[in-house]
Amino acid sequence: MAILIEDHLPVVKHNGFNTAKSVAFSGAATLSGTNTFSGTNNLTGTTTITGDLGFTGTGNAVSFAGTGVSGGVLTNLYNTASSALSGTQMDIKVLIGTVPFYFTVYQTKA
Predict the structure, then answer these.
(1) 98 DSSP assignment
(2) Which of 68, 58, 54 is nearest to 96 (CA)?
(3) I want to staple 41 with a disulfide (CB 3.0 to 4.6 A). Which of 17, 37, 61, 109 is the partner?
(4) Is the pTM of this model over 0.70?
């Protein structure tokens, strides 16, 4: 049986990391191009994402470990006045602790 280096170390191959092993980055790390993460992925410290952050599948969530003043903060969300709304009304559910809050949104704004 061949011994594969991938069984012992993450290996950088032609198309980037190609390993089933756990990988930890310390210090600054830059990922460019399309990056796909699967399973549970934890980002600690300051994480900056330039471009779009997309989720596929069902049951995807962005969660924060802390609560109260130690909880997560979403900032710089786009907002506008509520006049001339149209399209299908949808509701967004946000859990704060275990308490659900609902926000009404619309597809378009004239």
Answers:
(1) T
(2) 68
(3) 37
(4) no
